[in-house]
Design goal:
By secondary structure, this protein is of the alpha+beta class. The protein has two domains: 114 residues, D-amino Acid Aminotransferase, Chain A, domain 1, CATH 3.30.470.10; 160 residues, Alpha-Beta Barrel (D-amino Acid Aminotransferase, Chain A, domain 2), CATH 3.20.10.10. The chain has nine helices and 16 strands. Strands 7, 8, 9, 10, 11, 12, 13, 14 and 15 form a nine-stranded mixed beta sheet that branches. The protein has a seven-stranded antiparallel beta sheet with strand order 2-1-6-5-3-4-16. The structure holds 4'-deoxy-4'-aminopyridoxal-5'-phosphate (PMP). 4'-deoxy-4'-aminopyridoxal-5'-phosphate (PMP) binds next to helix 7 and strand 13.
Length: 296
């Protein structure tokens, strides 16, 4: 990130030094808030309305009133890109419950803290896409919807961070997470797909996953190409025996998986279906989204 980066914070653009939040902010004290990771491709914010919609749905689930409407939120995202001259990059949009007073009960409701950062992105290395990534299964289970619904992209990401650390400690890049019944849910920061006998399978949202925007895009693109996609429950047995496996996420895009728990998936490299979906996604992302410089 450049030194002269301008960060949107509560209605104004401030320099890096002034981009600070209070130690009494509920987001810091309790992870009480929601966030989005968004991409800009080719001077457009990819699926901006969908990200903003997910942010609002998550906030609603937390009884957190975002102090603006969705159109204004989209404006904040595009303006942050514009002000920073970002045409291709990664955007972090965050809403916390705001400044509280150390107690758990957020009443009377404080004024939420809103900030947005547009930066360049550190992707997985190119090798990951050429050879496929190594994934392990985390011992830690995914939060259940009954505790903290993974559909809420909340600032409380410890479940995911601890799983990601398990992967790192095992020399892997991502961690597959199971629910309480041992069914595959998603990875620490990505959704998961497997391919068996020409059919693309991915866990349904009700198992306890983030309804990923890349996931939804990939499902639609695959169906548009005439491929069969089914949202269904499966176990690690099905992952190990799959012909192909790939992960999806805003940062990862479509990332092939080579190894899961030291089992080689299919032929070990990115398979034909994964390649086809990966290139369809990259092509689609280049030409769809909210323009950052609408006058161009
Ligand atoms: N699952 C989790 C837990 C995530 O944090 C993310 C986003 N990094 C995803 C899936 C992928 O979602 P999206 O495609 O919307 O980025």
């Amino acid at each position: 990130m450049t030194e002269d980066v301008k960060i949107y914070l509560n209605g104004e653009f401030v320099g890096r030094d002034k981009a600070r939040v209070s130690v009494f902010d509920q987001g810091i004290l309790f992870g009480d808030g929601v966030f989005e990771g968004i991409r800009a491709y080719n001077s457009r914010v990819f699926k901006c309305a969908e990200h903003v919609d997910r942010l609002f749905q998550g906030a609603k689930a937390l009884c957190l009133d975002i102090p603006m409407d969705k159109a204004q939120t989209i404006q904040i995202v595009t303006e942050t890109c514009r002000v920073n001259g970002v045409r291709d990059g990664y955007i972090r949009l965050v809403v916390t419950r705001g400044i509280g007073d150390l107690g758990l009960l957020p009443l009377p409701a404080p004024a939420p803290t809103v900030f947005c950062i547009a930066a360049s992105l550190t992707l997985y290395p190119m090798e990951t896409y050429e050879k496929g990534m190594q994934v392990i299964t985390a011992a830690r289970r995914r939060n259940t919807a009954g505790c903290l619904d993974p559909q809420v992209k909340s600032l409380n990401y410890l479940n995911n961070i601890l799983a990601k650390l398990e992967a790192h400690h095992a020399g892997a890049q991502e961690a597959l997470m199971l629910n309480g019944e041992g069914l595959v849910t998603e990875c620490a920061g990505d959704n998961v797909f497997i391919i068996k006998d020409g059919e693309i399978l991915t866990p349904p949202v009700h198992l306890g996953i983030l309804n990923g925007i890349t996931r939804r895009t990939v499902i639609r693109l695959a169906r548009d190409m005439g491929m069969s996609v089914r949202e269904t429950e499966f176990t690690l047995f099905n992952v190990y025996g799959a012909d192909e496996c790939f992960l999806t996420g805003t940062a990862a895009e479509v990332a092939p998986v080579r190894l899961v728990d030291h089992r080689i998936i299919g032929n070990g490299g990115p398979g034909p279906v994964t390649r086809k979906i990966g290139s369809a996604f990259r092509e689609y992302a280049q030409s769809h989204g909210t323009p950052i410089f609408p006058e161009e």
